[in-house]
C-alpha cells in the first residue's frame, strides 16, 4: 500500500483544499492529513474559524482522506513520515523547497495551488477579518 501524507489548516474548506487532497490521494492508496491544531495555528499566526475538532470531522468526511492526525509542531514531519511508513509527502507549491529535507525519508511532491481561492480571500470577500 502506497501511503501519502499532507499538512495544513484546511479552514473554511474550499475547492483549493479539495483539489490538493484529490491529487495527493491519486499519488497513492492511502492519504493521511496532518491537521494543524488551534494551538499550532497560533504559532503559524493563523486563527481558524472552525475548531480543530470541526475541521477534523469535515476532513474525515472527504472521500480522498483516510486518516486525520494532529499537527502540533513544525518539527514532527520526519517522525510522522517514519512512524506512518509514508512513501510520498505532498504540499502545495507555495511551500516549494521548504520540506526538501524529507527527501531522505520519502518522495517529496509540490503541486500547483488552485488559483483564485484561499481561506483569507473568502474572509476578505465576506468582510471578516
Ligand atoms: N492549497 C492549494 N490551493 C489553494 C489553497 C491551498 O493547493 N488555493 C493547498 C496549500 O498549498 C496546502 C493545503 O492546501 O498544501 C492546505 O493549505 P492551508 O490550510 O493554508 O495550510 P498551510 O497553512 O499552508 O499549512 O506544516 C505545514 C503547514 O501546516 C501548512
From TrEMBL:
Key word Membrane present: no
Pfam families: CTP_transf_like
A GO molecular-function descriptor: metal ion binding
One GO cellular component term noted in the UniProt record for this chain: cytoplasm
Keyword set includes Transferase: yes
Domain Cytidyltransferase-like as annotated: residue spans: 5-124
Entry keyword set: Nucleotidyltransferase, Transferase
BP GO terms, sorted: teichoic acid biosynthetic process
Superkingdom, taxonomy of origin: Bacteria
Protein name: Glycerol-3-phosphate cytidylyltransferase
Origin species: Butyribacter intestini
Amino acid at each position: 500500500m502506497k501511503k501519502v501524507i499532507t499538512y495544513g489548516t484546511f479552514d473554511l474548506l474550499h475547492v483549493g483544499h479539495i483539489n490538493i487532497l484529490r491529487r495527493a490521494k491519486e499519488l497513492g492508496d492511502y492519504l493521511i492529513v496532518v491537521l494543524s491544531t488551534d494551538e499550532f495555528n497560533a504559532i503559524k499566526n493563523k486563527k481558524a474559524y472552525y475548531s480543530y475538532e470541526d475541521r477534523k470531522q469535515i476532513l474525515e468526511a472527504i472521500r480522498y482522506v483516510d486518516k486525520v492526525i494532529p499537527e502540533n509542531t513544525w518539527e514532527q514531519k520526519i517522525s510522522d513520515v517514519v512512524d506512518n511508513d509514508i512513501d510520498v509527502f505532498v504540499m502545495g507549491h507555495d511551500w516549494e523547497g521548504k520540506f526538501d529535507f524529507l527527501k531522505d525519508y520519502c518522495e517529496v511532491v509540490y503541486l500547483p495551488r488552485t488559483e483564485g481561492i484561499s481561506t483569507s480571500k473568502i474572509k476578505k470577500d465576506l468582510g471578516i477579518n
